């Protein structure tokens, strides 16, 4: 399986990989219900919240394997 990148849309990530929700919440991205989740990428959301996107993406990829 190809690695998930920070360029994936938040809602696309959640729909394709529901197990990623726990990782997003763990990193402080409670934006699943946020309006921005419909048009932001994971990378954009992480930047808005001051989150280490590389560490979070590593955790997301481990969670969905």
- Ranges with pLDDT <50 over ≥5 residues? none
Helix content: 40-55%
Spatial extent as radius of gyration: 10 Å
Work out the count of structural domains: 1
| Mean model confidence by pLDDT | 91
Proportion in β-strands: under 5%
Q: What is the terminal-to-terminal distance?
A: 8 Å
Write the layout of secondary structure elements.
Blueprint (H helix, E strand, L loop, with lengths): L9 H7 L3 H7 L15 H8 L3 H12 L1
Describe the structure in your own words.
The chain has 65 residues and is mostly helical. Helix content is 52%, strand content 0%. It is built from 4 helices and no strands.
Q: Which terms would index this structure?
A:
mainly alpha, single chain, 65 residues
In short:
The chain is mostly helical. 52% of the residues lie in helices and 0% in strands.
């Amino acid at each position: 399986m190809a690695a998930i990148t920070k360029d994936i849309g938040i809602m696309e990530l959640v729909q394709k990989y529901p197990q990623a929700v726990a990782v997003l919440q763990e990193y402080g991205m409670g934006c699943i219900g946020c309006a921005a989740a419909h048009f932001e990428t994971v990378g954009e959301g992480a930047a808005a919240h001051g989150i280490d996107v590389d560490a979070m993406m590593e955790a997301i990829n481990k969670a969905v394997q």
